[in-house]
Design brief:
This is Xaa-Pro aminopeptidase. Keywords: Aminopeptidase, Hydrolase, Protease, Signal. It comes from Sphingobium boeckii. GO terms for molecular function: aminopeptidase activity. With 439 residues, this protein is α+β, with helices and mostly antiparallel strands. The protein has two domains: 144 residues, 3-Layer(aba) Sandwich (Creatine Amidinohydrolase, Chain A, domain 1); 257 residues, Creatinase/methionine aminopeptidase superfamily (Creatine Amidinohydrolase), CATH 3.90.230.10. Helices cover 36% and strands 23% of the residues. The chain is built from eleven helices and 18 strands. The strands form four sheets. Strands 12, 13, 14, 15, 16 and 17 form a six-stranded mixed sheet that branches. α1 crosses α6 and α9 crosses α10. The longest helix has 51 residues. The radius of gyration is 25 Å and the shape is elongated.
Length: 439
């Protein structure tokens, strides 16, 4: 008995020992990928966006306990008191990179910076380079470009002195361009994030997770969160939003509703993998006894959403502003019989028409990203030009009557992520193409 017990301990210990290198290998693999993403971003994107925006020097300031939203993309690292990432365009070739007061073991294992001066040398450093325009992270709309606190702004002004302080300007457009133009390594990571996202949500909306009459929407949401934990991923929006679209009134969100036969369910969520964030939706119908598909009216409503999605894809091309692209698709929708432009969650009373709301926004650097955005809720980003390598979440809502469920219009949301190329918008993973079925 004792020998069998010892043998069991030895086998368990061997299994644990064998598992550790695999885990370490995955961590190192992801670290190497992230390091390459940062290198490519600095080498290929940063020179382009600094010169387009006329910024000679970009200063990203932060302190311990108050990191700038761009810190992870810029290399992370530990800040003991005050830290600065400073990028200087000297007129040709690569951008000079300096990290003031930033370090740490991980930071040093991905060498990105040419110089590591002391924060006390800030004024001397800047004076020697004599930049005409110094970009800082203050912004009127884009949060990722608004990381400079008021006290750090005052300190930066004082440390630079009045002459250099007069050259400070908002880096809002620079930050948006830097975050929203992507290298091949970023596109690969974004596609991988999309695969994680769709695989987990499509498993969640199946009999692997859902037992009709027993499983709640909240239990489905927490199962999805557990998959993020197991895969070492982050979430784009916290707990997934899971709600019932019909046959009754919509709701509740990720709560205690017991999923029943006849329910039409949607999930809105996203994941974070290697600084790439997704935003997507999936829909499922819970079959009643004797059914092999959703009611015809539900399928018709879903198909009308797919029609609008194709209209969006038809107008997206690089070289136009996001606002112009949205105007073009809105015009196409308004000219199509049976469709009208509507208001979010406030459809018209006419049962013969389908109301359409389009909010195709930037994505990738966050679930709602920093770049060009075909959405009225991003007015500044509507003015930005669509460029190759921008990521977009193609999001839309249609409201249409399902005759089997009465006269109320049912909301059908669609959302998936893609990358803009010279050919238009291309998906980075297989998009939503059907209503999933739960038995």
């Amino acid at each position: 008995m004792k020998s069998r017990l010892i043998r069991s301990w030895v086998i368990a210990l061997m299994a644990l020992t064998m598992a550790q290198p695999a885990s370490a290998q995955e961590a190192k693999r992801r670290w190497d990928q992230l390091c390459q993403i940062r290198k490519d971003k600095f080498d290929l994107v940063l020179p382009q966006v600094m010169r387009e925006n006329g910024i000679d020097m970009w200063i990203v300031a932060m302190r311990e306990g108050h990191s700038d939203p761009n810190a992870e993309m810029l290399g992370g690292g530990y800040v003991g008191d005050i830290g600065y990432y400073i990028f200087t365009d000297k007129g040709a070739g690569r951008i000079e990179r300096a990290a003031f007061g930033i370090g740490g073991a991980g930071f040093d294992q991905c060498p990105l910076y040419d110089l590591k001066p002391s924060p006390d040398d800030l004024r001397k450093f800047v004076e020697a380079r004599n930049p005409k325009r110094i970009g800082i992270n203050v912004a009127r709309e884009i949060g990722t470009a608004d990381g400079l606190s008021h006290s750090l702004y005052e300190k930066l002004n004082a440390d630079l002195g009045p002459d250099l302080a007069q050259r400070l300007t908002s880096a809002e457009k620079l930050v948006s361009d830097f975050r929203s133009r992507h290298t091949a390594t970023e596109i690969a990571a974004f596609a991988r994030a999309g695969e994680y996202s769709r695989t987990i949500v499509e498993r969640a909306l199946s009999n692997e997770v859902i037992t009709p009459g027993h499983t709640t929407t909240g239990q489905v949401a927490w199962w999805m969160m557990e998959q993020l934990h197991k895969e070492g991923l982050g979430g784009a929006f916290g707990l997934p939003s899971i709600y019932i679209l019909g046959p009754g009134e919509r709701g509740p969100v990720s709560g205690d509703h017991v999923i029943q036969p006849g329910d039409l369910i949607t999930v809105d969520w996203g994941v974070n993998y290697l600084l790439s964030y997704t935003d997507m939706k999936r829909m499922a119908y819970v079959l009643k006894a004797g059914e092999n598909g959703p009611p015809a009216g539900v399928q018709r409503a879903y198909d009308r959403g797919q029609t609008v999605r194709q209209m969006i894809l038809d107008v997206i091309r690089p070289g136009v502003t996001a606002g112009a692209a949205l105007a073009a698709v809105n015009q196409r929708v308004a000219a199509t019989p049976g469709f009208v432009l509507g208001k979010y969650d406030d459809p018209s009373k006419d049962p013969k028409v389908t109301d359409v709301v389009i909010g195709s926004h930037s994505v990738g650097d966050y679930g709602h990203g920093s770049g060009p955005s075909m959405a009225d809720f991003n007015p500044l980003r509507m003015t930005y030009e669509l460029r190759p390598s921008n990521f977009l979440s193609i999001e839309l809502f249609v409201y249409t009557v399902v005759p089997e469920w009465g006269s109320r219009k049912i909301k059908i949301p669609l959302e998936d992520d893609g990358v803009i190329t010279e050919r238009g918008l291309e998906w980075v993973y297989p998009p939503n193409s059907r209503i999933l079925l739960v038995k």
